[in-house]
Amino acid sequence: MNTRNRTLMQSAVAVFVGGCVGSFVRLVLEAMQPASAVWPWMTMIINLTGAFLLGFLLEFLGSTGATSARGGFSGSRWALG
């Protein structure tokens, strides 16, 4: 397996593990919300926290220069608005 395929596989595994952990945390936090709640506060808090963390990560990676010369983060920049 060459370096590019290994990097792609590691990225896919990282996304999978992050998705599993995030889903489990969402499930646990939403179970803590009382059934009588009128507004889904836990969902809103989870979504705002996730958006903040993604924004922080993108800003951090952009400011540290942690980009790939052949695409990578900078190649995906068009999707970020």
Automatic annotation (TrEMBL):
InterPro entries: FluC (IPR003691). Pfam families: CRCB. Its main location: membrane. It is found in: Cell membrane. Keywords: Cell membrane, Ion channel, Ion transport, Membrane, Transmembrane, Transmembrane helix, Transport. GO terms for biological process: monoatomic ion transmembrane transport. One of its GO terms (cellular component) is plasma membrane. It is a multi-pass membrane protein. The chain crosses the membrane at residues 12-29, 41-61. It catalyses: fluoride(in) = fluoride(out). Fluoride-specific ion channel. Important for reducing fluoride concentration in the cell, thus reducing its toxicity. Belongs to the fluoride channel Fluc/FEX (TC 1.A.43) family. This is Fluoride-specific ion channel.
